[in-house]
Design brief:
The chain is mainly α and about 725 residues long. It has a domain at about 1-110: Tetratricopeptide repeat domain (Serine Threonine Protein Phosphatase 5, Tetratricopeptide repeat). About 75% of the residues lie in helices and about 0% in strands.
């Protein structure tokens, strides 16, 4: 009661306090701060005003002072939902979603039906993927204000996210019956109807989904999506003839979409496929998707005839990507043999007669060049590197001005293990076309692999902004390949701090991708882009399974393991084998080194402070830790390494490398149960993994050497090892 009495303001100040909330909503922070200070002069103990003053200060870039005032306000009035809400807003601004959620939960204890708090809480729950709790919050929002259309849509999406699309359909049906319009434009109406159809599809009731689709056809503006869903539902319901017609319409509109063609072929018997593809190719001769499917399904002499036409056309036109297109057929040994036989024959015939065969017409001189180029890539693919190098040199001698030839030569040299020479050749290619950003990046990549880090940064700087540092610009552009390559370059040089700095920079990209969703939780409900919104949420959940994240994780774990394995006290001198004079010298040297280190540290702190002030005024980012000392000096390298591995264990459970990285961490942490589980997963995925037997022996030896190990843990590990040996 005392807190409530303190909370009440006289009418004049109460009116000013209401204006504070409007100032915040209108982003008039300076005006709001002035009004808050006016109230506090007369009522210095008013907790809610203190909290709002802290909020204004936080938005005026005075974060520490802002937090201080919010905490003071909260202490003055612990039962105020406004104080707790403001505290949550501060945490949310710092992207500390867990703490923000706790604050919102406390705010709701004291004001269960505050719309602003419930709405903010729902956004936070979506961001943190607390979908079960989200359903409850969205239900409360809808009950509080059923005339608000986004609340209906929010609840439908919440049900979809907890895999209850049938409840989502009920919500949309009830909303439609309530006659509360959610959409104002044709596009918005179309998107809402197609989202309703998406929910029907996810219930598995394809007949209802098809009936609904036909019902809404005239109102849908996204005609392509409508046609795709129509074709899909017809096939799902076993209506093959109608499904075939639907897919043929889609193919006529986009014959380059391989998914449409494959869906059509799935409706045909195996014996019909070649005829269907031949007819389609006659209709759409420029479709590469159809051409590749013809080659995929052709066999024997038929394949030879058809691939010969494709090869000759590609070599005649000089298509550099011809090998990449043909490589997919190499999985079939017979098709690979046919292709190799044909191209080798072409190279012989072109050198002798300038034709592809005895009865063929003369070909342009470039046909031989691209044939040699194809064969060089072919032999490189099969690791016949000497033969590949011989052929690419022959191609360069034929026409020494083609950039792709030097790029392929650099690639062959890289595969042969000569990183320095590969970098040199790739740089020659770059210098042949200084306007090409792709070859510039490729050359820099090879330089990094050769350990030429400074030169690589210089080369990349030719295409980055001139007003900022090259690395900073690549960081701003979230250039993932650069971070992984330069991180690995530093790793090879055993500069672990710098390596970890690059890997953590890449990891921050993924944090940013995740944080960037936040504003869309409300935006998409207003704009009704609901299908794209749900797809984005699901895509974000799997994002860290991306190959670049795996590369960075692998490099970061290797660096952290190297730091963890570094013997303790490596920098200390060994007094046992020293004379008294040497000991005295060593101690003096150590004392001077410690003093210098302290002075350097103080100087560094002063510099960092100056840089921070400068950065605040210049608005230009300043790297306060260029050497990555923060990462190199970590006291818990194994725990830091796990930060990279944990997401991958969930998102890439079939990747052997992920579990191998986990094993290396767990065995060092002496977490033998987790270590043996990691090896068990590797064995079940691929028991022929080369390192598996070695790691099993390592684990067995570690368990035996651990004298104080709990017998129950040892027993479980032994049982698991026995099970793995049976696989």
């Amino acid at each position: 009661m005392a807190a409530v009495n303190k909370r009440e303001l006289p009418p004049k100040e109460a009116a000013v306090f209401r204006n504070l909330l409007k100032n915040y909503e209108l982003r008039q922070y300076k005006k709001g701060l002035k009004l808050a200070e006016g109230i506090l002069k007369k009522h210095p103990e008013h907790g809610e005003t203190m909290a709002l003053k802290g909020l204004f200060l936080n938005n005026l870039e005075k974060k520490e002072e802002g937090y201080e005032y919010v905490k003071k306000g909260l202490l003055k009035d612990l039962t105020s939902h406004i104080c707790w809400h403001v505290y949550g807003l501060l945490y949310r601004a710092d992207k500390n979603y867990e703490e923000a959620a706790k604050c919102y939960a406390n705010a709701l204890k004291f004001n269960k039906n505050d719309l602003n708090i419930l709405r903010d809480f729902a956004i936070l729950q979506t961001q943190m993927r607390h979908y079960d709790a989200l359903v409850d919050t969205r239900t409360r929002l809808l009950e509080s204000k059923p005339q608000n259309p986004p609340f209906w849509l929010g609840l439908a999406i919440a049900y979809q996210l907890v895999n209850e699309p049938h409840n989502g359909v009920k919500v949309l049906n009830t909303h439609a019956e309530s006659n509360i319009p959610a959409a104002s434009t044709d596009f918005e109406k179309s998107e809402l109807l197609m989202y309703h159809n998406m929910l029907l599809e996810e219930t598995g009731d394809f007949q209802s989904a098809l009936d609904h689709l036909l019902e809404i056809e005239s109102q849908v503006t996204d005609k392509r999506s409508w046609k795709e869903k129509n074709a899909l539902y017809l096939v799902k319901l076993g209506k093959k003839e109608e499904g075939e017609k639907a897919y043929r319409i889609l193919i006529s509109e986009n014959p380059h979409n391989g998914a449409y063609i494959k869906a059509l072929l799935a409706l045909k018997e195996k014996s019909e496929i070649n005829n269907v593809l031949t007819d389609l190719f006659a209709q759409y001769p420029r479709s590469k998707a159809i051409e590749h499917l013809i080659l995929e399904h052709a066999e024997g002499e038929s394949f030879k005839v058809k691939v010969e036409a494709s090869l000759q056309n590609g070599l005649r036109k000089g298509i550099p990507s011809l090998f990449a297109a043909m490589k997919k057929y190499y999985a079939d040994a017979e098709k690979q043999r046919v292709i190799e036989e044909l191209v080798v024959g072409y190279s012989v015939s072109l050198e002798k007669n300038g034709t592809f065969g005895a009865d063929s017409a003369k070909e342009p001189p470039t046909a031989l060049l691209w044939t040699l180029y194809y064969l060089a890539k072919h032999y490189d693919f099969h690791h016949k590197l000497e033969k590949a190098l011989e052929l690419i040199n022959k191609a360069i001698a034929h026409t020494p001005t083609v950039v792709e030839l030097y790029m392929t030569k650099g690639r062959i040299l890289k595969h042969s293990g000569d990183a320095q020479q590969a970098s040199k050749v790739m740089n020659e290619a770059r210098e042949m076309d200084l306007q090409d950003r792709f070859i510039n990046s490729k050359s820099a990549k090879y330089m990094l692999r050769a350990g030429e880090i400074e030169e690589a940064e210089r080369v990349l700087g030719l295409f980055t902004r001139k007003d900022v540092n090259t690395v900073q610009d690549l960081t701003d552009m979230q250039c993932q390949w650069f971070m992984t390559e330069e991180g690995n370059a530093y790793l090879n040089k055993k500069e672990y701090g710098k390596a970890l700095k690059r890997f953590h920079t890449l990891e921050k990209f993924y944090v940013d991708y995740f944080d960037d969703q936040f504003d869309f939780h409300t935006y998409c409900l207003r704009k009704l882009t609901l299908r794209s919104y749900v797809d984005t949420l699901r895509w974000e959940d799997k994002l860290r399974a991306h190959p670049f994240y795996l590369k960075a994780a692998k490099g970061a774990v290797q660096a952290y393991l190297a730091l963890a394995d570094k013997p303790a006290g490596t920098d200390e001198f060994d007094e046992a084998n020293m004379s008294e004079a040497d000991k005295k010298k060593a101690r003096n040297k150590a004392r001077k080194a410690a003093l210098k280190a302290q002075q350097d540290q103080e100087a560094k702190k002063a510099q960092e402070k100056d840089d921070a002030v400068k950065q605040k005024h210049d608005k230009k980012p300043v790297d306060l830790d260029p050497e990555g000392e923060k990462y190199a000096n970590t006291e818990k390298p194994l725990e830091d390494a796990l930060v990279f591995v944990k997401p991958l264990e969930l998102l890439a459970p079939q990747n052997v490398e992920v579990h191998a990285l986990g094993f290396e961490i767990y065995i060092r942490q002496q977490k033998y149960l987790l270590a043996v589980k990691a090896l068990g997963k590797i064995a079940r995925i691929d028991k022929k993994t080369p390192s598996l037997k070695t790691n099993l022996d390592r684990l067995e030896a570690a368990v035996k050497a651990h004298k104080d190990l709990d017998p129950k843990i040892k027993q479980v590990v032994d049982l698991e090892l026995t099970e793995i040996s049976k696989l």
